[in-house]
Design a protein that fits this description.
Length: about 110
């Protein structure tokens, strides 16, 4: 079963990004202090509990607790930081991203089915 793996260091982020050459990576940037982010987190978990794409690696960055990792992801991917935010990475490049209430299990299902 697919699960969110917490990314807590620049090294883990680098490894996940490099692995995106072999398969897609969905990064979820989550604020543990934000009710909107809590709702988006529930949507991601709902997607993962149904029939997620097992070819995708799922990572979560806690933007308050691991701010340096969150900033590094934004810089490396060239995607302005928002929280909550979902970013699909292929070949170490952001190919899709969305944020806030646009993060739904249906949206994830649609973009990750490809």
């Amino acid at each position: 079963m697919a699960a969110l793996k917490r990314i807590t260091s620049i090294e883990e982020l680098t490894e996940a990004m490099e692995d995106s050459v072999h398969g897609p990576l969905l990064l979820f940037k989550h604020s543990t202090r934000c009710p909107i982010s809590s709702g988006a987190h529930r949507e991601v978990e709902a997607y993962l509990s149904q029939s997620p794409n097992e070819a995708v690696t799922y990572g979560v960055i806690y933007v308050v607790e691991d701010r340096g990792v969150s900033n590094a992801a934004a810089e490396r991917l060239g995607v302005k930081h928002e929280s909550p935010q979902a970013i699909l990475v292929k070949n170490e490049q952001a190919v899709w991203h969305t944020s806030h209430s646009d993060i739904t299990s249906e949206a994830l299902e649609g973009i990750l089915a490809e």
